[in-house]
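Tokens for chain A. Residues wanted.
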């Protein structure tokens, strides 16, 4: 999770004169969240970050809701989302509520002619297929299969992909993404029982100051609209920064599973949380070792939360015939459980190589038109023997 980090050159004292070799001042910027009450960083720019040259017409990227209310177990075939050259156009919201939007994306091309800023949502981008570099003013983060990129709201970024075959699972959170409170001590440090620690967090490196004037297009998302701004200076003109507000990454492959003699409940898989939802990682692990244990999960009534599972890789013990990139949505209000036959089949198994991301939102999710287009309509009958 964010710990104090600094890159580049900063003055000895904050809010004091910090001059370029030519004697002019660098421009200090406080990037603060939740007013002045939460994480922040102090950034030093070659130029003020305020030089707007043009403001284009905003356009809507609001999800188009196809099914606002429903009570049906649903499955989406995520890899049926068509690849698109442009990163922003490739992002297809599928499951949304007022706390988070879940999108799928298969972008082919790196972002080269514009920058993007989500001004009101933290973004968690899970890299299912592909690799590349997240580029920001704070520095760069190399990413690969299995990484969760966590990009706090307000961060201007570009994604540079190594090739055209990319599959992303994206969560936009309208509240800060954090490690669960129970993993942290009173100072915020991740504790010994946490399934990951600060050493597993990838922080930005290789700060490169791009001191350029010109026309720089920044597409800024706010309240479902994209505002096309043209700024007169390159957004990656940071000469240095310090603080706690910056992008970071964590690999699902570094999540250390917690196992037990009998079936462990989903909270042991929790990785992050936002307001009204949690993100969990199901990773390869030893199965339960009580002599009479049943490794497959029990039937479950999630009385007041929805459950979203995004299948990444491996064999799923609770369900056969799932495919990579498939999403299941088990809405609160009706029980769900392992597929017929999978309980008996799981007995005696010692290991699972399943890999999945789970999201449990506490408010019901709506399905978008893009979701309905990739729906497996018969999934709700899949428990019929
Ligand atoms: Fe469940």
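Reply:
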């Amino acid at each position: 999770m964010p710990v104090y980090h600094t890159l580049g050159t900063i003055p000895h004292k904050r809010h004091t004169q910090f001059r370029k070799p030519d004697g002019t001042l660098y421009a200090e910027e406080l990037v603060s969240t939740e007013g002045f009450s939460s994480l922040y960083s102090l950034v030093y720019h070659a130029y003020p970050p305020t030089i707007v040259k043009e403001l284009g017409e905003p356009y809507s990227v609001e999800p188009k809701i196809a099914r606002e209310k429903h009570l049906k177990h649903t499955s989406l075939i995520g890899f049926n989302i068509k690849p698109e050259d442009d990163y922003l156009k490739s992002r297809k919201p599928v499951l949304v509520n007022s706390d988070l939007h879940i999108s799928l994306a298969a972008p082919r091309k790196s972002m080269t002619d514009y920058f993007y800023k989500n001004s009101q949502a933290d973004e968690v981008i899970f890299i299912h297929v592909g690799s590349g570099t997240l580029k920001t003013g704070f520095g760069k983060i190399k990413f690969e299969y299995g990484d969760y990129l966590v990009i706090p709201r307000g961060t201007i970024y570009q994604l540079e992909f190594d090739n055209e075959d990319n599959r992303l699972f994206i969560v936009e959170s309208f509240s800060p993404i954090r490690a669960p409170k129970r993993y942290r001590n009173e100072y915020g440090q991740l504790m010994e029982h946490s399934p990951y620690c600060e050493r597993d967090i990838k922080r930005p490196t290789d700060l490169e100051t791009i001191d350029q004037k010109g026309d720089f297009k920044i597409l800024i998302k706010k309240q479902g609209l994209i505002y096309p701004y043209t700024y007169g200076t390159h957004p990656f003109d940071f000469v240095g920064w310090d603080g706690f507000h910056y992008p970071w990454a964590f690999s699902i492959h570094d999540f250390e599973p917690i196992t037990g003699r009998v079936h462990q409940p989903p909270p042991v898989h929790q990785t992050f949380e936002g307001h009204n939802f949690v993100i969990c990682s199901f990773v390869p692990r030893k199965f339960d070792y009580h002599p009479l244990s049943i490794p497959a999960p029990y039937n479950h009534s999630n009385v007041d939360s929805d459950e979203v599972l995004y299948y990444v890789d491996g064999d799923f013990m609770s369900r056969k015939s799932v495919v990579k990139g498939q999403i299941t949505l088990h809405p609160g209000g009706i029980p769900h459980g392992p597929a017929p036959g999978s309980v008996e089949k799981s007995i005696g198994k010692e290991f699972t190589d399943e890999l999945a991301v789970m999201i449990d939102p506490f408010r019901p999710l709506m399905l978008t038109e893009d979701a309905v287009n990739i729906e497996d309509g018969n999934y709700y009958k899949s428990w019929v023997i």
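The two ends are 45 Å apart (CA to CA). The first helix runs from residue 87 to 90.
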